[in-house]
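Box 3.1 A note on notation
Throughout this textbook, protein chains are presented in two layers. The first layer is the amino acid sequence; the second is a token string describing backbone geometry. Keep the layers aligned when reading.
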Amino acid sequence: MNINLSWDLFILAFFGVVVAYSFIIGRNQTLKVISATYVAILCSDAVGNLFSTYLANSESFLKFLRLFAIANSDQATAFFKVLILITFIVIIAVRGLYNFDADDSRPLSLKMGINLALGVMSAGLMMSAIMIFVAGGSLISDVANANSPLTSIYGESRFVRLMIDYSNMWFFIPGVGMILLSLFHKKSA
């Protein structure tokens, strides 16, 4: 069996892993991961932009990064933003000082459907942020790079196009999902 690695396969595998993990950790922790992702996106974008401004253009630092196959400051910034994003998500989700209480007495099938939807939204939010950072984009600054590594991938991969073209939806829908769950949640006494 010959499997060709592609961005589509990577995105599908990423979604599969995140959705499966959301079933393992449950609805409350998945909500915590989604909120942690929102906070981590803004923090990693800001820290990455500071990194780009003050450290990524240093010739001695770029020499060091070439040991890790990072050739220029744009790649260094994208790598740094993704690294910080993943690190912050894990720290906030595991050690965050808040918890969600979304347990209720709904039927099991509805609970599983909600958990599936939250898992897909969580994966879409994370993947959209990663794609924007890899493309050299920023949510809080105009640092977009026209010579992005995603330019050729965008033309080849339907899933990459979906993630980038609809990234605003991927950022918007999980937040609305959390708001709707909060509005319609019935606490058990």
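Confidence is low (pLDDT under 50) at residues 142-146. The two ends are 55 Å apart (CA to CA).
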